[in-house]
Amino acid sequence: MRLTNVSQMQVQPGRLHSCVVTATPEDTERLPLSFDQRRHVSFGSRPGSWMAVSFRLPHPTGLEQIAEAWEHVLGRHGTLRSVFTCSEGSGDQGHPEVTGEKGAQLRLNRVEPTESQWETLARDAGPAEIRATLRELFDVACDPFAQPSHRLCVVEPSPVEAPPAEQGAEPASGRQRQAPVEQGPQIIIGSDHSHVDAWSLLVLIRDLTSCLEDLDAGRPLGARLPEAEPFSAHTRHMAAKSAPPEEITTRWREILDAGGGAMPNFPLNLGDLSTPAQEVVEVRDVFDAEELAFLEGHAAEHGVRLIAVAVSVMTRLARQLADQPLRTVFPVHSREDPRWFDSVGWFITNSVLENDDDSYAASYRTVKEAIRLGSYPLGPIMEPYGGMPQEPGTFAMSWLDHRKLPVNVAEDLHPQHVSAVIRTDGVMIWFVINDSGMHLRCRYPDTRQARRAMRTWLAGLVYGLRAPLEAG
Description:
This is Peptide synthetase. InterPro entries: CAT-like_dom_sf. By secondary structure, this protein is an alpha+beta fold. The protein has 2 domains: about 1-160 and about 180-235, Chloramphenicol Acetyltransferase (2-Layer Sandwich), CATH 3.30.559; about 245-470, Chloramphenicol Acetyltransferase (2-Layer Sandwich). The chain is about 30% helix and about 25% strand. The strands form 5 sheets. Strands 1-15-3-10-7-2-6 form a 7-stranded mixed β-sheet, with helices on both faces. The protein has a 5-stranded mixed β-sheet with strand order 14-17-18-11-16. Helix 2 (about 65-75) crosses helix 4, helix 8 crosses helix 9 (about 360-375) and helix 8 (about 305-320) packs across helix 11. The protein is globular and about 60 Å long. The two termini are about 30 Å apart. About 40% of the residues are buried.
């Protein structure tokens, strides 16, 4: 799966449709909020809080079939049948799912979506128009407080004529003009981040395509799919965990204190970040499949995994360019048990990674420590700070190896992980690995200082990652 954003994603020309469902919250069943959901949604309505996935079906498929399959997928995943509301505090202040901020109450309620209806957003549109329309739609339909905060769209492709027959060849039908080539539609599913993570996007593709295959074969929808536990059950499971041991809270405190009482910041100058700036997004191809196999073998020879090589390179960069240890936010998933593997939800929480020894062994120990630091509920850890302390300039790295996931999708579906276009005041680097190799995606603020700093950092990062190849 390629990681991109809505302004750069690959889109086929055609007719753009939106599958509309509505969901009105009922004050009946209140669901628990995870620490990360509460933090994300408490920032309020804003454009760009969503993420999306795009893929192409292998053959023509009608809108009604897609809608029927999508309604079944919605029924499988509890988080897609829940909505957030926020109201001024008026009693019930002791409820555990209340933010407590300025008297506002943040709630998550179970809902039952209505039957879907299609609306056409663009006819015979080119890729640029479709991308702009998707961005505008998802910024509204996938708002944290939208009801529901997800939307499925379909691009029915414009007819594509087959290539002309070779000169002198007899047309099969006696006509000079060839029949249009039949193409499958492109499906784009957007959702507010509070309900999905990168793993969830793969689950959505698998579930929807499986249900469409069931329709074609006359099978009951979802007959071949495993049971999907609701994300709310995972939230309750995490809340029931015992308090983190003292060594965990102490290590968190050490890393936060080293960053001035906040989550780690990027070590180089990013310029004026008093207000978020328009984002710059860069994608760098690092390894093809053969080179990736060589680097993984190189890591294995040193008793580590490839991620340790990446951490080693960045540790060296931080010391060479800023004379400080590598400190970065490091998202980790909490799908510790197979019961969560087939669920949709935000099973990601933030950890922190700190390293000042660029040896592979030390870098690998640092990764293991970061995973352990992120394996405990963050609420008790962050309580002394009044929540997760974050300042402009935050630095985060994400490691996405799609080959290691128990849920994956075929590359011939042309899957794309699509991010929103946002304003930002921090740096995030995604390392994305699949069967075709590794690429990096980096997002940073569009300031003169940040552009210069990131050119230096990314060039050094790619060079360092490829150095073992050059050494043979």
